Task: structure prediction
Amino acid sequence: MNIIEIISKKRDGAPLNEGEIRYVTDGFVAGEITDYQMSALLMAVVLNGMTGREIVALTQAMMESGTIFDIGPGGGPLIDKHSTGGVGDKISLILLPVAVECGLRVPMISGRGLGFTGGTLDKLESIPGLVTDLETGRFEELVKELGGCFGAQTDDIVPADKKIYRLRDATGTVQSIPLITASILSKKFAEGISGVVIDVKCGNGAFMRRAEDARMLSESLEMVGREMGIGVSTVITSMEQPLGSAAGNALEVIEAVSVLRGEGPEDCLELTNLLVSEMLLLGGLVETLEEGRVRSADAIATGRALERFHRIVEAQGGELDLSDADLGLPRAPVTRPGRAPRSGNLAMIDPRTMGEAIRELGGGRMRMDDEIDPAVGFRIFKKKGDPVLEGEAIFDVHARNDLDAERAVRRMLGGISIIDEPVSSPQLFL
Ligand code: URA
Result:
């Protein structure tokens, strides 16, 4: 087989067969296919799409590029959750310990920031000392001991996703239903789980801006689940504004802990409870979503989920100072408020603008090897539908220096709209 012919075939819109897909995946992981050849192929997939059979073959080949966990019996059902990516989406951090406290085991392989969206691994790594590059054996041990842990794609664990994910981030090839489907499900299925709940984000702060695209992504995810015999449930939720009141790596960890303390923003709490209840339903531990919600809310209210989170973080080497308001996480030296230019009702606080601004502040990557600044980001004081007064702070920016802060405030104010007419707050569940 020949990579140039495969790229040309996809460029011309023809479907690739299973052998060709495996040849590309294995060859790329082995370093025999270069980044520039893979980038060309990925762009051809973005432009020409893939058939259902191709998506299944790609998911399978990526999943089998590394080890597949064998966590074994002796605990609750193995069920995970993933998000297709948003701004301010720190739900995985909150949800994992809650789901474990509700009786599930959650071997979570997550991703880094992708495009303008944040990534669970980057958020977690703002905790000093915390390691997400776990070896397979250690990963399995942590799930056995603590019910769950947060890990990354490595050279042993879905290496194909590790390499392709980084490349997509730096080459404008994220936005593709086949590539998102294979990326998410190869990671999740390599965990040896029996089911996964996927939060499909929809809106301007998501890869799927329109409801019909979000529905197509849901169908693609569920189709691959059916073909590969693993339960996949999808929920479509709004990403028309940033989730919660913080966006940026360390700021989101602080907010996640606040939700685990029962103090966090309502949208984060509601979404956590819904997704945990979907997981419990998929795992057969509850019969109704309402029953699941009650169990999830109880795990938070009793403080058990926070304690579990702390134990998992410590087991992964992380140092969280729960007595400190900032948890001992890095803080940015400069903060600047973004003030309302007029009075009225907040009609838009654009999540995509915020995600791009965070990337520019250094909280995301422009190139594959860029270092992340964990401390930069935004705190959000007003949400869509809230009344605001001229001069009132809508958000503040956390930046490395004055110039970056001023630029980010200006950029974000361009993503704000205030109108006289009343604005209803957006529905979270679509
Ligand atoms: N999350 C992933 O893991 N992969 C994608 O492509 C998008 C979101």
Remarks:
- The two ends are 45 Å apart (CA to CA).
- Residues 84-85, 111, 114, 179-180, 183-184, 187 surround uracil (CB under 6 Å).
- The mean pLDDT is 97.
